[in-house]
Specification:
2 domains, 2-enoyl-CoA Hydratase, Chain A, domain 1, Lyase 2-enoyl-coa Hydratase, Chain  A, domain 2
């Protein structure tokens, strides 16, 4: 299959729908809505297969900063508008004209946004509704859990443009699927389907398109029922531990275990278990 090329005109950009919000910042390229304990982030440039340009990265940063800082939000679902693409990659019409210095700055911006997503302290579910290529694959990999539709496609095709992944692909992909498999994908620039991505461990689950958001919500609701501090500390222990030796990671885990033990949520959780009732966690 040929790589979908994302390009746009100024007219496309100006006609991009503006998000309608229940609360939060006004964004141009991202729809951002909060319903109950879940924030919904939708990359909203379907005419260009939700390609990532600088403005979209900035919108994503704003949305996730708001979700991070809102204590009522316990988790986030991120997806792409339409039924063709989660994110098909970088906006080639913008990328084609950047200098080396600008390209490095763009890479660092994307990396910073994806680090924000990965280390949000709250679970982020990627609901992958189509192509997840280049920056789209990198965005998905920064999320806590990845749910994909049956027709989703994954890849890091940057070498076909004379580039390398710039949003963390050379780092997160080997950690998820192993060095050899990651290098095959990165160096060939090839695409794989959802079944292969699931087999490699890049995708957690595959669902029918009609069930995508429902399944993402179900997973988040299951997580949200647990102690929010415990969820945050488990995320931090896992993410930080991945960058250390096992012995250092175990020490980190013990430290977080101790922090959890001193919380009101731990007292409530253990008491609720003994009393055979549902716990009422307060995040304290």
């Amino acid at each position: 299959m040929d790589l979908p090329v994302a390009a746009h005109t100024l007219e496309d950009e100006m006609s991009s729908p503006v998000s309608e919000l229940n609360a939060g910042p006004l964004l141009n390229n991202v729809l951002y809505e909060k319903r109950g304990a879940i924030a919904y982030v939708t990359i909203n440039r379907p005419k260009v297969l939700n390609a990532l340009n600088r403005a979209t990265w900035l919108d994503l940063r704003t949305a996730f900063e708001d979700a991070r800082d809102d204590s009522a939000i316990r988790g986030v679902i991120i997806t792409g508008a339409g039924d063709k693409a989660f994110v098909a990659g970088a906006d080639i019409s913008e990328l084609a004209h950047v200098s080396s210095t600008e390209a490095e700055a763009s890479s660092r911006l994307g990396q910073a946004v994806l680090d924000l997503i990965e280390n949000l302290g709250k679970p982020v579910i990627a609901a992958i509704n189509g192509f997840a290529l280049g920056g789209g694959c990198e965005t998905a990999m920064a999320c806590t859990i990845r749910i994909a539709v049956e027709h989703a496609k994954f890849g890091q095709p940057e070498v076909k443009l004379g580039l390398i992944p710039g949003g963390g692909g050379t780092q997160r992909l080997p950690r998820l699927v192993g060095k050899g498999r990651a290098l095959q994908l990165i160096l060939t620039g090839g695409m794989i389907g959802a079944e292969e991505a699931h087999r490699l461990g890049l995708v957690n689950e595959i669902v029918a398109p009609a069930s995508l958001m429902q399944r993402a919500e179900a997973i988040l609701h299951e997580i949200v029922a647990n102690g929010p501090l415990a969820v945050r500390f488990a995320l931090e222990a896992t993410n930080r531990g991945m960058e250390t030796s096992q012995s250092e990671g175990l020490a980190l885990e013990a430290s977080y275990f101790g922090l959890c033990a001193g919380t009101e949520d731990k007292k409530e959780g253990t008491l609720a278990f003994l009393e055979k009732r549902a716990p009422q966690f307060r995040g304290r």
